[in-house]
Amino acid sequence: xxxxxxxxxxxxxxxxxxxxxxxxxxxxxxxxxxxxxxxxxxxxxxxxxxxxxxxxxxxxxxxxxxxxxxxxxxxxxxxxxxxxxxxxxxxxxxxxxxxxxxxxxxxxxxxxxxxx
Amino acid sequence: xxxxxxxxxxxxxxxxxxxxxxxxxxxxxxxxxxxxxxxxxxxxxxxxxxxxxxxxxxxxxxxxxxxxxxxxxxxxxxxxxxxxxxxxxxxxxxxxxxxxxxxxxxxxxx
Lengths: 116, 110
Hints:
heterodimer, A: 7-stranded mixed sheet, globular, B: 6-stranded mixed sheet
């Protein structure tokens, strides 16, 4: 049990669908992250939230829309995705956003997304 | 442009032998390096780290070596066990940035 849960674990959607990924952390952390992992590529940081405020958006297309209603929950709303968006989407949390060197991130199991 | 590179997509090692996973980086601003381990259907979990002011850090069977002049680090696992079979990600940080490599699949054969 990593303390970070993600639902659903698998999702198949069409390009015209709207879906949401959910992440919940039970660790009392203040920072949460969305990453994308495509096959044979490094994890790509998508969004960072610190104390429920978005502090980083790494040039992610607007068809991905994050939401952080409180420090324990993070959503990724998906709309009109493309097949190349198929990937593993990982959520992570850390105590603070002040520095990742001594503040390791705890990852959820990920959502395997397939866009048809 | 990948700042953290793991050039070996996979590695196969016999149980009991040493596993050496390599990682190269290009950004001299990186000040901390981490290794994460990922099993199928699970998220990456933190394994071991090293500060840029050190050249070695050891934790049980896991040792990380850093060669700053070569911008190279490696993770040694000895002795390797079948349960070590996983994907290993190298990561590096500077400021608030955490940059990952693409991962190396380690298979430990019994």
